Amino acid sequence: MKPFNELNRGEQQAYLMLPIIQELKNIGGEGSTKKVKKDIVKNDENLPEDVLTETRTSDKGNTYHPFNFPYNFAISNLILAGFLTRPKRGWIVLTKEGRNYSGTAKELSDLVYSRSLPKWAEKSKKNKNKSQTEVSTNEEVDAELTDDIKNNETDDEDDRQRIADAINNLNPYKFELFCRALVNRMHVEMSDKIGVKKSNDGGLDGYGYITTDDFRTTRVAIQAKHWNGSLVQAPEIDKFRGAMDSYRAEYGIFITTSGFTRGAIKKARTGTSVITLIDGDKLVDLVIKYQLHVKKVVKVSYELDDFLSSNE
Prior knowledge:
Elements: H1 9-26, E1 30-32, H2 33-43, E2 56-57, E3 63-64, H3 68-80, E4 84-88, E5 91-94, H4 96-100, H5 105-127, H6 132-136, H7 147-150, H8 157-168, H9 172-185, E6 189-190, E7 206-211, E8 217-225, H10 234-246, E9 251-256, H11 262-268, E10 274-278, H12 280-290, H13 306-309
Parallel strand pairs: 8-9, 9-10
Antiparallel strand pairs: 1-5, 2-3, 4-5, 6-7, 7-8
Helix pairs in contact: 1-2, 1-3, 1-5, 3-5, 10-11
């Protein structure tokens, strides 16, 4: 098989269909499109490890993730073919046919396209939009995605991207301060002695204590890596664990603006010291959850009374 990045857009869509079904089976038959996407990349060694963090800039100056297009179209084709349903935006569920599917990837994509392509053509004819084939091969489609494709993502994707861009633009020192503030919001009592020097100190970027409801106190070490593009690899986890041991930390939190290789994820889950990995996407989740340097803006709408809404 050719490397994933050498496949054309249609081949990439076809390739992703079976992993989507398999990952949904692994997590009980339903889940968020974001989680399924991350699990596919984590578990499928045929996919580049950096495929989720890869970005490109369109001629209009918009930043986008090219992997999202074949992934979202694969989901929409599976929905049109009856293998998935989408009860709400950003959430997918296996149908009975999806749960029971046991064929090959080629058999699946052939069956899916035999059902979905006529429906795409019908939608295109009704809406006078571009055909699915035209859209799926155009990397300038950010503003041209059909409603079906946009519904595979959450409502706040634009806001999430703005937050991610802002975090990526922090200098390394401000990023470390940012991470310390975030962990503090997560009820870790931060030390003012360890991990307070500027970047490149060769040690920890934070250290603290967390006490549970039953009054058990755990020493927590924090590492923050402001990396754009490159993934954190296994040796970085080893170095962090060594620093944790030096300070006798039982628990570690490794935060990065990018992501982690499969080897790094495996390393974090082995050994006596548990390390929680927070990648760029999860970091945005936590920033929103704890409203760290962001605030929720509620849009106001107005309802017309009878005087304005009636001509009688």
